[in-house]
Amino acid sequence: MNISYTEWMALGLLLVLLELMLPGVYLIWFGIASLGVALLSYFFPLELTEQLLSFSLLSVVFALIGVSVYQKIFKTEKSSDTHPYLNDYASQYIGRSYKLNEDVVDGKTKVLVGDTVWLAECDQPLLKGETVVVTAVKNGVILIVSSK
């Protein structure tokens, strides 16, 4: 039993159309591989195993091409020196002063930053309302504070 070139072409077109409807960036490469097998099957009479092997090889080749293309398109550039904390919200607060929202208990407290309360760690026994300076960030969420 062989799969005809029209069936490979239909599968390829279906995968390409699904790429347009579904989120992701990988179905197109399998669709192109399927269209490649359709082209091979049209010019050369291939057995089912040869067709499947061709599809597998072309899928790998086109997937690698896709990875290369997407790496070039979405190549991440280093953040500029003018915005060192871009997309790192917690690090933006280093060096700034804020008031404690709670007393320090077991080295943990909360700091009022604008209209948001952040968890904070502190080695000093400080009281609610004292002004502290953010000296570091741990795991992007917890602020390490010292008294001002």
Description:
The protein is of the alpha+beta class and 148 residues long. It has two domains: 5-73, no CATH class; 89-147, OB fold (Dihydrolipoamide Acetyltransferase, E2P) (Beta Barrel). It is 41% helix and 20% strand. The chain has three helices and five strands, in the order H-H-H-E-E-E-E-E. The termini are far apart.
Low-confidence stretches: none
Please, how many helices?
Answer: 3
Global structural class: alpha+beta
Task: Give average pLDDT, whole number.
Answer: 85
What general form does the structure show?
rod-shaped
Q: Can you list the strand order of the major beta sheet?
A: 1-2-3-5-4
What Rg do the Cα atoms give? 29 Å
What number of structural domains do the residues give?
2
Largest sheet: 5 strands, mixed, barrel
Give a short overview.
With 148 residues, the protein is α+β, with helices and mostly antiparallel strands.
Topology (SSEs and partners):
Blueprint: H1 5-21, H2 27-43, H3 48-73, E1 97-100, E2 108-113, E3 116-121, E4 131-138, E5 142-147
Helix pairs in contact: 1-2, 2-3
Structure characteristics:
148 residues, five-stranded mixed β-barrel, alpha+beta, 20% strand, 2 domains, OB fold (Dihydrolipoamide Acetyltransferase, E2P), 3 helices
